[in-house]
Amino acid sequence: MPRAAVGGCCCPLRGYDVNHSGPQTQGALFQAVQLARVFADSKTFPDCVALAPADDIARDFRRLLDDFVRSRFALPEAGAAPVPAAGDGLAAHIDALWTTLTRAPDVSEADPPAGGTLLPLPHPYVVPGGRFREIYYWDSYFTLLGLAAAGRVDLVDSMVRNFAWLIDSVGHVPNGNRIYFLSRSQPPVFGLMLELLEGECGFDAIAGFLPQLEREYRYWMACELPAGLTPAADRHVVRLADGALLNRYWDARNLPREEAYAEDVALFAEVEPARQAEVYRNLRAAAESGWDFSSRWCGGNRSLSSIRTTELVPVDLNCLLYRVETLLARWLAQAGQARAADYAQAAVRRRAAILAHCWNEEAGWFFDYGWCDGRQTDCWSLAGVFPLFCGLADVAQAQRIARGIERHFLRPGGVVTTLAATREQWDAPNGWAPLQWATVQGLLDYGEDALAREIATRFVALADRVFRRTGKLMEKYDVCDMALDAGGGEYPVQDGFGWTNGVVRAFIARFGAPVATAVQAGAPC
């Protein structure tokens, strides 16, 4: 005879699985109800009985949420899509784009419009385009290069005034003019903007902005480091084992980014528990770098799950701060200020520290430095050209960097960002306008004119080819295979595009208009 079921039940518990429960125990609805404390007792909702199939409930909840958001919030407006005029060449198209990408001054009050996150700016400004409806700090310098080349010094001046206003208002230039960007900055290029304006209008045009440049420098150098403890870090400042002070990227908040909330939360679940404590800050710090994201910021597996941005001393950041120190030393001396000598001495100390910790004599390249483990990273990246761009490399180092660019980074469409092919957008096979500019200008400053011209010509030819095919200039390009579109990152490739427009326009002004060439085969990345 069959054995009687325990307790008299003749039906086994088929179809029950703790991992596949109903909407009252898992999923977006479950999290929303529980975290909102709809019920005083958290056990109440899991004990509820669903009155419809789980899929129907999930669909209705998404629809309800969508309807609620659309009825309570004004969605951001899509920018006007620029349409090239018939027969327009690349330079003419870019010059026409400045009007499309320029925004009128916002309300003059310091507070943002009720309900919004946009930080109002008092002067006209240029946005990158696409999903980027606000200004971005380091993007804007490369945009200004193109504005200057196009004779739009009025907009160069307006943008400088906006950044000075932001420094006066919040103590630094935020990542962008949104409330949720206030906790971090981006690569410090305000001094480079002033240098550009000085070249157009003379020293008197920028002398009034030196207090803001000094205040921004103090933002990057502010710290409270315990006496004698090495290595150590506080905010953006790192004290190395030998006592030298250098800088890192950092963010005051250790939370998912508002503009990439779902992506950050999903990544957190992939991170080893021992590294979860600072993962959000490391993601935010990478966003401050402008290189979001790159294997440059990651551990040995080259994956974002090992991101460690705050543990690194980036060579490009410290070169840019060296440039700030040298500019302040020159300009304050010109203004008759005795403290110019303090900045000159700071520049000498920083240069010595960069050379000691970031230069690799064997490789002939500059690398980021891991201040926690006391060694250079092994990531070859175009951050290594910034000692040329900022003028701190010696001639012998510059020559070796030039040969390294030819050997490792030169591709059919310009120079590639890193030598690692990953899913991240600041890696191979992508090339970015700001890095093309830093590379070319750095090479020119050290007399490597032929290589500089070759890189600029290749990048402009690639941008022109894509423009003729699509009518657009892009945020980034696949420089390895000019027949392919760039990829990687957290969002689709954007068009517009501020810094590409600026760099391409400046290259055309310097080296001439592009010449049509055949599509070149892909190069290994």
Summarize the structure.
The protein has 525 residues and is mainly alpha-helical. It has helices spanning 27-35, 54-72, 90-101, 137-149, 153-170, 190-201, 204-207, 210-221, 261-268, 279-289, 315-334, 340-358, 386-389, 395-409, 433-445, 449-470, 498-511; strands at residues 102-103, 125-126, 232-234, 237-239, 245-247, 312-313, 359-360, 365-366, 369-370, 375-376, 410-411, 414-415, 430-431, 477-478. The chain has four domains: 20-72, no CATH class; 85-103 and 388-525, no CATH class; 134-222; 228-379, no CATH class.
Strand order of the largest sheet: 3-4-5
Radius of gyration of CA atoms, rounded to a whole number: 26 Å
Sheet with the most strands? 3 strands, antiparallel
Helix share bin: 40-55%
How far is the first residue's CA from the last residue's CA?
A: 72 Å
- Estimated structural class: mainly alpha
Note the total helix count: 17
Low-pLDDT runs of 5+ residues are 1-10, 518-522
Overall, the morphology is: globular
Q: Give the number of domains.
A: 4
The overall strand count is 14
| Overall mean confidence score, pLDDT | 91
In percent, how much strand structure appears in the residues? Answer: 5-15%
